Amino acid sequence: MLVDRHGRHVSYLRLSITDRCDFRCNYCMAEEMVFLPRAQVLTLEECLRIARIFVALGVSKLRVTGGEPLVRHNVIWLLERIACLPGLKELVLTTNGSQLDRFAPALQAAGVKRINISLDTLRAGRFREITRVGDLDKVLRGLDAAQAAGFQRLKINTVMIRGGNDDELVHLVDFAVQRGIDISFIEEMPLGDRGLGRRSSHFSSDEALARLQNRFVLVPSAESSGGPARYWRIPGSVTRVGFISPHSHNFCDSCNRVRFTARGDLYPCLGNNDAVPLLPLLRAHPDDDRPLGEAIMHGMGIKARGHDFAHQMDTPQVVRFMSMTGG
Predict the structure, then answer these.
(1) Concatenated DSSP letters of 175-186
(2) How much is the pLDDT for 251?
(3) How would you class 282 by CB atoms within 10 Å of its CB: exposed for 0-12, middle for 13-18, buried for 19 or more?
């Protein structure tokens, strides 16, 4: 039912429930972040209402993001209710893993089907440099807890950084194979002004694939997880190796997703600034979903054909940080 002006069917919502995070990853946010005041953040009831409306409009996959979603108080209450929405086929979560050691069993019981864990390095010192405050051991304990809780599909998301972690790509795939989990390598996106460009730190999927093929047999796969990753299989392993390539292999032609921020803004395209502010409508019409549905349909009409990050590597046109949009 949600079809944009270019004929693409939108079936995937990425819903951010907080802009706050207990890490400060240097490609995701500024070191000294100013977070939204509570009054400007969706309540959990408003998050549930937005999820319900989107699912009623045909969304079948919903990913809860942040910031770090597991720092949001009463997050399990919300996930339990989203998972029960009629028509929703898949509820998934993206996390930095810092809270998984205590939340993994509850997430499984709540109905979360898959978890993506952001992990850019297996070196504790480097992990602290990238996240500024993070503890690698705590994330690894969280991964252990998620596997022990019985999640069948876990995936590591690794942002590739030239000179930052590109020397670890083979080790990260080895780690995923040993764990029996998936891994996706993501090209860094020029989102947010951090005072320096991304050109020098950009590492492409093609470079990564060539490097990995020196160590592994990689067989291209037509599988899809419903998102932008393109997968390769390693024979004899259950691990899938994915590449998310917003620079080198733009995936906009098949884009099926929109983002909803914790501030109540609908972003039809990650790489553009056009948005539909829905928080005022949410609060002005607490018992009438029709104005919200109409505004969401308007959002389909402003969804861009695609983004072009190639000309934004030195000076980003999208000045909001990834933590503001939702990971």
Answers:
(1) HHHHHT-EEEEE
(2) 67
(3) buried
Return the closest-CA partner of residue 12 out of 150, 118, 114, 98: 114
Q: Is 295 helix (H, G, I), strand (E, B) or coil?
A: helix
Q: What tokens does 154 get? A: 């876990």
pLDDT for 15? 97
Return averaged pLDDT per consecutive 10 residues of the chain, 327 residues in all: 92 95 81 84 98 97 96 97 98 97 98 97 96 95 97 94 96 98 89 57 92 97 84 96 78 87 92 89 97 96 75 56 67
This prediction's pTM: 0.91
For residue 9, the model assigns a pLDDT of 95
Q: What is the DSSP string of 22-89?
A: S---TTTS-SS--PPPGGGS--HHHHHHHHHHHHHTT--EEEEESS-GGGSTTHHHHHHHHHT-TT--
Dihedral angle sign, alpha carbons of residues 273, 276, 282, 284: positive
Q: How many CB atoms lie within 10 A of CB 283?
A: 12
**Contact between residue 154 and residue 181 where contact means Cβ atoms under 8 Å apart:** yes
Distance (Å, rounded) from C-alpha 313 to C-alpha 326?
Answer: 20
User: What was the pLDDT predicted at 143?
Assistant: 98
The span from the CA of 257 to the CA of 270, in Å, is 9
Taking a C-beta distance cutoff of 8 angstroms, is the pair 93, 63 a contact?
yes
Long-range contacts of 206-210 (CB under 8 A, 24+ apart): 206/248, 207/166, 208/160, 208/166, 208/169, 208/243, 209/243
Question: If you ran DSSP here, which 8-state letter would residue 196 be given?
Answer: S
